[in-house]
Amino acid sequence: MRGFELYDAGTVQEAVALLRKFADRPPGAVKVVGGGSDLVGGIMKDWVAGKGMPIPEVLIDITTIKELSGIRMAADGATIGAATTLTEIVDSKDMNEKLPLLAKSAESIASPLIRNFGTVGGNINQRPRCWFFRGEDFNCYKKGGDFCYAVTGDNRYHAIIGGELCYIVHPSDTATALLALNAKAKIAGVAGDREVAFDSYFIGPREDVLRETVLKKDEFMTHVTVPTMPAGAKWGWTKLKDREVYDFAVVSVATWFTVENGQWKDGRIALGGVAPVPYRAKVVEDALKGKDIKATAKQASAAIRTVSRPMSMNAFKVDLAAGLIERTILEALGGK
Ligand SMILES: Cc1cc2nc3c(=O)[nH]c(=O)nc-3n(C[C@H](O)[C@H](O)[C@H](O)COP(=O)(O)OP(=O)(O)OC[C@H]3O[C@@H](n4cnc5c(N)ncnc54)[C@H](O)[C@@H]3O)c2cc1C
Ligand code: SF4
After folding, report:
1. Which of 64, 253, 267, 313 is buried deepest, with most CB atoms within 10 A?
2. 124 CA to middle of ligand 1, Å?
């Protein structure tokens, strides 16, 4: 591994000052780092680089910023510091009581060891897992090259929705749950602070194939704010993997909804593993609105087929998505 400069920021202002100091470096050369399980343990160790994606020269550690660690729970929702570990979310009594959907999604991630040092900010902002992207020999579009190897290569686990130019699927389980929960990202940067709803935080390849979020090169996520679900809301989290042990989602479903006389009143459904961004299945939500959930769940879930454009080897994921949405809704309705 090549050497790099490491700075421990003590405050958000210090981290922003460091981003300002190194503003003249090319995009990707300066990165904030959480647990480093992806950035240091993956990208930098495995030489994932290309002309549009240099190996970082400067890392700004934000786990040394006290105010970015921990969960603050209020009556109307939670504020979670970006440097909070996944284990803290899994173990939090408040989370399990008030936002169990997020706690369950975090629990489904990787192994206890990785969850102990992987942060929620790092999980949401981790780079994609496409095996060509992670391979040193493939200078694909996402690294600044001029080809997508998934189009002609093995695309079993690639996107079935919204792929274009690049067909990654978003790897983060917490991002899928947070999109369903209508969370917002708090962002600090050289030009000031801003807040962006998860509905618009992630960007697909059409907008910019080199990035997966709206973050500019001199910005980082400081917190996530998550509203609590309405009283009595049903919720569900299902993640389908290829292996029993830890693995990324082939398809995952996060949902919450309110019910009146057996009918879908309000709610959201988000899917992981199917699109370059955590995907809001609005087409299914719309098909359920005001309808008897038990009677409509199958047909409404099948509406995901109308927005799916599978690749040569992954049409099976369309069937999985339709089945998993239906199962998650019905289990949530009957169970919690
Ligand atoms: C074997 C293995 C299995 C895994 N399985 C799963 C899984 O099933 N589900 C899943 O969701 N994930 C999975 N992961 C990914 C893992 O959860 C992430 O590596 C981890 O959450 C990243 O956290 P980190 O703090 O270590 O991130 P880092 O490696 O520190 O950072 C990751 C990326 O996010 C950026 N970043 C970090 N913090 C911020 C911030 N606050 N603002 C902006 N950008 C930021 C960094 O610059 C970097 O590009 C797996 C990883 C491994 C190694
Ligand atoms: S899907 Fe995206 S990341 Fe994978 S090879 Fe194609 S361009 Fe690269």
Report:
1. 253
2. 7
- Three-state DSSP class for 33? strand
- Whole-number pLDDT of residue 335: 58
Is residue 182 one of the residues assigned to a domain? no
Does an H or E element contain 270, and which? strand 263-272
Q: Which atom of ligand 1 is nearest to the CA of 119?
A: 25
Q: Is the CB of 48 under 6 A from ligand 1?
A: no
Q: What is the CATH number of the domain that holds 253?
A: 3.30.390.50
pTM of the model: 0.98
Q: Is 325 within a domain?
A: yes
Q: What are the pLDDT digits (tens) for 90-101?
A: 999 999 999 999
C-alpha distances (whole Å) from 163 to each of 97, 122, 224, 274 are 36, 23, 27, 9
118 lines ligand 1 (CB under 6 A): yes
- Say if ligand 1 is within 6 A of residue 77 CB: no
Residue 184 lies in a domain: no
In a domain, 271, yes or no: yes
Q: What is the largest CA-CA distance in the chain?
A: 62
Task: Give the pLDDT band of residue 45 (cuts 50, 70, 90).
Answer: confident
Q: Quick one: what percent of the chain has pLDDT higher than 90?
A: 94
| Domain ranges, residue 253 | 234-334
Specify the pLDDT at position 249: 97
